[in-house]
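Pilot study result, target chain (523 residues):
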Amino acid sequence: MIALVLTGSVVGAELLARTSRVSDRLTESIQPARAEALRLQNALLDQETGVRGYVLGADRQFLAPYTEGRQAERDAASRLRGLVGDRPVLRDDVNTIERAAADWRRRYADPLIAGVTPGAVRPADRATTEGGKAAFDHIRALFGTQNRHLSQAREHSRSELSHIRTVRNWVLGGMVAAFLLTAVVLAVLVHTLVARPLATLRTASRRVAQGEFQHRIVPAGPADIRAVSGDVEAMRRRLVTELDASRVQQEHLTRQAADLDAQAVELRRSNAELEQFAYVASHDLQEPLRKVASFCQLLEKRYGDKLDERGTQYIAFAVDGAKRMQILINDLLTFSRVGRVNDAHVPVALDKTLDKAVANLAAAAEESGAVIERPDELPEVTGDPTLLVMLWQNLIGNAVKFRHPDRAPRVVITCEPDPDAGEDAAGWRLSVTDNGIGIPEEFAEKVFVIFQRLHGRDAYSGTGIGLAVCKKIVEFHGGRIWIDTAHTGGTRFCLTLPTAPAGRPASPDATAPARTTPEGQPA
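Predicted structure:
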């Protein structure tokens, strides 16, 4: 197509240039030359008329056409030569007429003019007049030859212009036909080399898109289409690989789901057994312990006076062991029931749970002279009220139990929005701070492990389950608990709890002054 366009442009430009040249030659050379030839002929005719009138009238004014005719002749001949300079025949006609006119003036006109006396009219010389007329008739014949040559040149230019226009029209028509033919050929080629491979690629791609992932896409057509086909085929192979991997993963997940279902069934069975064990532990195991303790006490009461100090001590050890075993069983039952027996998730006002826990600890707080400082208002959270009472009771009870021997217990409770909670999971950060004996930093994690004790039973009573129960309660509510190791002068427990349900917010005034009980009175 580029070659056709360039060839057509060159040929068309050449034809248009030739047409323009012939047309310009006809309109700017031949036609003006005819007009100038007519002026030249008229100038010579004026000279002949002026000479004849001057000879017959002997009046100088009759000589004016002759003089003006010579000037007009020179001007017309000059312009005519400029117009026909590239045509030898027409140029020769001008030169021949000029020579004939000069010969006529030299042989007849100038002698006649010189022989006339102004004002003296004399009979005309017939021989001279006839000779001058015959000489001018020769010039007139040259006029006819010149006019014939100019007409021939005009007709030739017109014929050439018509021929060039005909050729131009045929060539332009042929170019249009060639363009149309080339367009048809290109359309066929595009359809064969581009459209058909694209249609094949589209059909293959649709088959793959409809689920025939094993259908192979064969590259065909021009390089660009082959490259696209290769990329689509590579994408198909990758999809097939990913699908195979996905099927394998799906089968693996299905097996895992089946395993999890089996484990869930086994877990439900195990939970049922644990429920049964809890029932047995709470009833059947405690009954023998109560009998052991009771009968040991009866032995001491009945045979105490017959036992020595060592026997009395052994009986005391047996009673104490039975009681501690009973306490340990109760604590284990409490730990196991967290989140299992009590599984309520309702809006709970922390103020009420704290009040209940403080009431449960009233005797111990009064005995130790504990002072409990708390915010005027605590928020509402979502959880189990029984477990939250147990949480407060364990934390405050630990603060009272592990008090410093040199000062009365002082427990400070604070509440503020949790700064680490996300925008979609707002919550509260609570802290319980005491002025007791404190917990070394290296034991900050160990104290939350069940049965872990930092002191002997002779120093502090208990089973080492209290803080483990606190951790389990907080985690059951979606929070976390830890010890602030940066605090000195006692122990500070920090914990987070989820916020109250939407529509029931309750925000404590963290900067409000704490409510303090009088010395020795529970809050």
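One observation from the pilot: Residues 351 and 378 are 5 Å apart (CA to CA). A full batch analysis is planned for the follow-on phase.
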